[in-house]
Amino acid sequence: MGKRFTRRHLGPVALIALMVTALLGVGLAPAASVQAESRRVGNDSGAVTGATSGRGSPTAPAAAGIPRLTDARDRTLTLRGWNVEDKIHRGPDALSAITERHFADLRAAGFNFARLLVFWDDLEPRRGRYSEAYLRKIGRILDWAREHGVHVVIDAHQDVFGPAFGHRGIPAWATRTDGLPFAPHPDDWFAEYFEPAVQRAFTHLYEDADLQRAQARMWRLLADRFGGHPAVFGYDLINEPMGELRAGEDLASAARRIEATQLTPMYRRLAAAIRTRDRSNHLFIEPTPIVGEGVPTGLGRVPDERVVYAPHFYNTAMEAGADYDPAAGWITAYENAVTAYPREYSVPVVVGEWGPLNSGLPNMRRFHDDALASFTRYSSGWAAYVWCYGGGYCALDRDGRFRTNKERTATPYAPAVAGTVRADTHDPAGATYRLAYRSTRRPGTTALSLPPSTTGWRIEVSGRTAHPSTRSVPPGQARQVRVWASDGAEVEVTVRPGSGHRG
After folding, report:
1. Rounded to an integer, what is the distance from CA 42 to the centroid of its chain?
2. How many other C-beta atoms can be found within 10 angstroms of the C-beta atom of residue 458?
């Protein structure tokens, strides 16, 4: 969801209200409009090679049945970062709000991952006419990511289908409505997803043979152009897909049907198309947004060895402006729902979007800590929403400082572990990170990412022949620390706050 509050920068409140209504059996009428301040307000604005989805790969006990991402050296991977976007500009000015600073600052804060939003309507504004200028801009952004050691997933983003309805995503020439009506909802934009014309447009996208071919050509082009770029980790095939409800159908049932009968075939088609150009990068597939209400997806298997399940993580009440309620049990319900698919089909999880609009409310410190602990239990990483400089959902203020509680996302973690992970925990109260693993048979290097800290860091390593590249990091510096260990060693790494002295 992760959108900005303008006609081009959107938020999920109306959908979530509709979800709740549907799940309670009250009906499917669009939700009442909500206050503008509850919208998502957006910005003002070490390469991983040969990675696999890790079937049978190392996995922590808390994530039993869910594999972790691994690389060609069988190291267990973790991606942590943010969405990067420009939803304001289009045409000749498209992507101009994204600068090298975004990636330099991501890396300086210890992050290694970005989900880059791109729009089909900018890539192919006229049928069969692709914008070389837009492709060059994507390439330039990827070059910045490579320069700063940030892995990128290219996300084919859509909001309310596309420009035919005043938003971004699917080109107007690929929008078919059969003459059904569309009424804008300026104060409740997500209700537009339930307009007959929008719903029918999704049906045609999924089912019309010529649109299927056009979408596949678009992805073949992207994979051909960028599949070999060292910054590219994968492709998110469509953002927050929706669909057409049938008469008398509740939203949860509709979502599962759309996922099973329309999204799964689409993902299989697009996977096949991409694999004609790129055999190695990952394919990120999303359920409908209703998974955020604790409803397991109806997606089926996508037969590819590098599929990643990429749900989004947004809370109903918080998106409507409420504070986090730890007693409500939402994170537990979400976790139970979202882990069903990756367990059944043995695919890794990377949460593609998450984060509250108002991070300054009293319980938001607790929310960030609880969310991060949950992600660690079952996922190979996440991309928070959104890395920009300003208000609303922006991670940073105009001066580049973390906004209230968003600094909680910048914790020590292990981007790559050369072994089977036994434990991977962060204690926010003591700012202490602990990693335990059994080292691999083949020589490998474990990497730790330590964000800047006012106290610096102390690194303690135990285990037969295990040793770190350094045992201390001075205040104010982000650092990558390496750990080496011999074959089969049981290694424990503990990272604690340092003394606070420089030098």
Report:
1. 16
2. 15
Mean pLDDT of 382-401: 97
Helix (H) or strand (E) holding 483: strand 479-484
Residue 51: per-residue pLDDT: 52
Confidence of residue 191 (pLDDT cuts 50, 70, 90): confident
Of 47, 44, 39, nearest to 14 by C-alpha is: 39
Q: What b/e string do you get for 268-286 counting C-beta neighbours within 10 Å, with b at 16 or more?
A: bbbbebbbebbebbbbbbb
Burial of 104 (0-12, 13-18, 19+ CB in 10 A): middle
Angle, vertex CA 368, rays to CA 365 and CA 374, nearest 5: 140
The pLDDT of 136-163, averaged and rounded, is: 98
pLDDT value of residue 7: 30
pLDDT value for 292? 84
Q: What is the DSSP letter of 377?
A: H
Separate counts of helices (H) and strands (E) for the chain: 12, 19
User: Which pLDDT tens digit goes with each residue over 290-310?
Assistant: 898 889 999 999 999 999 999
Q: Which of 339, 461, 382, 398 is nearest to 63 (CA)?
A: 339
Token pair in block for residue 488: 């089969």
Three-state SS at 419: strand
**What are the tokens at 2?**
């992760």
Among 72, 226, 236, 48, which Cα is nearest to 151's? 48
CB atoms within 10 A of CB 48: 23
d(CA 160, CA 186): 13
Angle CA 421–458–351, to nearest 5: 40
461/266 Cα distance (integer angstroms): 47
Quote the CA–CA distance of 195 and 178 in Å, as a whole number. Answer: 13
* Mean pLDDT lowest among 18-22, 101-105, 301-305, 412-416: 18-22
Angstrom CA distances, 411 to 267, 500, 501, stand at 34, 17, 20
Running DSSP on this structure, what letter comes out for residue 496? Answer: E
Nearest Cα to Cα of residue 53 among 298, 271, 355, 368: 271
Q: Tell me 159's DSSP state.
A: B
Dist. CA 391–CA 414, nearest whole Å: 30
How many Cα neighbours within 13 Å face the side chain of 266? Answer: 29
Around 341, how many Cα atoms within 13 Å sit in the side-chain half-sphere? 30
Phi first, then psi: give them for residue 203, nearest 5 degrees: -60, -45
